[in-house]
UniProtKB/TrEMBL annotation:
<keyword id="KW-0732">Signal</keyword>
<dbReference type="InterPro" id="IPR003646">
    <property type="entry name" value="SH3-like_bac-type"/>
</dbReference>
<protein>
    <recommendedName>
        <fullName>SH3b domain-containing protein</fullName>
    </recommendedName>
</protein>
<feature type="signal peptide">
    <location>
        <begin position="1"/>
        <end position="15"/>
    </location>
</feature>
<feature type="domain" description="SH3b">
    <location>
        <begin position="24"/>
        <end position="91"/>
    </location>
</feature>
């Protein structure tokens, strides 16, 4: 039986899926990136979705054991999928409500105010030229409006199978990082949850940002590290990402 683990972040009830404690309608979320969702229980079943970390859905009621895993049938995006319990944690119902945490929404609204005041520049275009709702500006605007941030859905050389699409909550750590930078001066944000990066990029988990590489680049990297993230100078931009 999996052990319980209390986590203080993102309103987690517990981090152990215990078969006898699960019932229909319970909210569960993926605990890692790249989780295969299948059309039936079993590792040989067709993969219909690849879920990002933090993707939440409700248990539909089906629980089966196959190929060494306990599989749970979930209601996701208007259809039924099967996911192995190893990759699921139990969360509260708010996580399945389609809403992001209130604190994250408040930070997004504060950042949107900074953008409207000209202190923060949020890109309204992708380097690829693809038009969608996943521009940095749209991500912050939608979070402020109580929605999740859109992710891009197209392919490129670094993700030939295509980026995930859908939506994600920008994490508290990421928004706090941007807030800290903006408090010290103008910042240009190139990308948040949008564009085409490597397929498993933390951008698609709402945990990464690409900043325009300017005179503050060293500060961006140092602040990223100080706030327990990982940063890298990628030439035309500074990448900073955070972890669960």
């Amino acid at each position: 039986m999996w052990s319980y683990a209390l986590i203080s972040l993102v309103a987690v009830v517990n981090a152990a899926l215990v078969k006898e404690n699960i019932h229909g309608g319970e909210c569960v979320c993926t605990n890692t990136a790249g989780v295969n969702a299948r059309d039936a229980a079993g590792t040989s079943s067709h993969v219909t979705e690849v879920l990002a970390s933090g993707t939440c859905a409700k248990i539909n009621g089906g629980i089966l054991t196959a190929d060494g895993y306990t599989w749970y049938q979930l209601q996701y995006a208007g259809k039924l999928i099967w996911v192995a319990g190893n990759y699921l944690d139990v969360h509260d119902q708010q996580s399945c409500s389609g809403q992001c945490p209130a604190a994250s929404r408040a930070m997004a609204c504060a950042l949107l105010e900074k953008a409207n005041a000209g202190v923060l520049s949020l890109a309204r275009v992708h380097p690829s030229g693809v038009q969608d709702n996943a521009f940095a500006y749209n991500n912050i605007r939608d979070m402020c409006n109580g929605l999740k941030a859109s992710r891009s859905h197209y392919s490129c050389s670094t993700c030939p199978t295509g980026t995930p699409g859908g939506t994600v909550c920008l994490t508290h750590d990421l928004l706090a990082y941007l807030t800290a930078l903006v408090s010290k001066g103008h910042v240009i944000v190139n990308e948040l949850a949008g564009a085409c990066h490597t397929c498993g990029s933390r951008h698609y988990n709402g945990q990464a940002v690409d900043l325009h590489n300017d005179a503050r680049s060293t500060e961006y990297l140092q602040t990223c590290t100080a706030m327990h993230g990982w940063g890298q100078n990628e030439g035309d931009h500074i990448h900073c990402q955070f972890y669960d």
